Description:
341 residues; alpha+beta; Rossmann fold; Dna Ligase, domain 1; D-amino Acid Aminotransferase, Chain A, domain 1; six-stranded antiparallel sheet; four-stranded antiparallel sheet; 13 strands
Amino acid sequence: xxxxxxxxxxxxxxxxxxxxxxxxxxxxxxxxxxxxxxxxxxxxxxxxxxxxxxxxxxxxxxxxxxxxxxxxxxxxxxxxxxxxxxxxxxxxxxxxxxxxxxxxxxxxxxxxxxxxxxxxxxxxxxxxxxxxxxxxxxxxxxxxxxxxxxxxxxxxxxxxxxxxxxxxxxxxxxxxxxxxxxxxxxxxxxxxxxxxxxxxxxxxxxxxxxxxxxxxxxxxxxxxxxxxxxxxxxxxxxxxxxxxxxxxxxxxxxxxxxxxxxxxxxxxxxxxxxxxxxxxxxxxxxxxxxxxxxxxxxxxxxxxxxxxxxxxxxxxxxxxxxxxxxxxxxxxxxxxxxxxx
Length: 341
């Protein structure tokens, strides 16, 4: 394996310390991915420089001029406070002919726009929930075709931002209240889609042209009261005390027939290609009791911490964490060669 000069880019508040010795789990949690990736690349023998970014591309330009990286490992989830601007940073790297890991700008743009991605997938006859977008500064008018119950979320924010148990609504008054909440508190257009009752699956995909589908992972609610919807709220994802209280965990999906696993794999490959993704991504699905599989969303560049679902699924497929990080680097270099970088 050739040793590389790697510049890891991340939000300026998430640059990890060189050592986490003596720190508690809650202290480490905010920058867990950034630390795990940076430390693993360093342990693989690469020359690694971590760069924090806020709203100035000049910081990136100067770091590239100084360190002359062979590749940039992209861990950004936003730029200048906007989730959708991560695609612009990757576009800047392409203009500079600098190889990078993860998804290309077009794939990031398409996947981040939840309504547009659902429209594209629906056109290709992939099942998506019925939905409608409610722009800011407009009156909320529910299309007649859109039946309750609905789940209301941001049209482009990630990480379950703005999603809680109150996001599932069953009448027009609650719909209007929740749309207003998204407009005011999250600051984006709102998307309301049919709430699909069923098992929630996360499926990792690695690759550019040749794709590897990782084992199906499932979100489990072992102690959730029956009257509460089983959805991935912000508390479900990030509140460790709430996770323990409600018995929330993820694990390899059980009791899935081989035919269903194969069908899920085919669907995820189609989604990956239709949205123009590359590098690595996680596809979020729901399967009803009748076996109908709905796509909730595609997430390019998902969380890569050592103890996250993507890494666990890769390990189940035979890829240890250091191998996973190295493969992501190799895929980035491969994509760059295709672009002539």
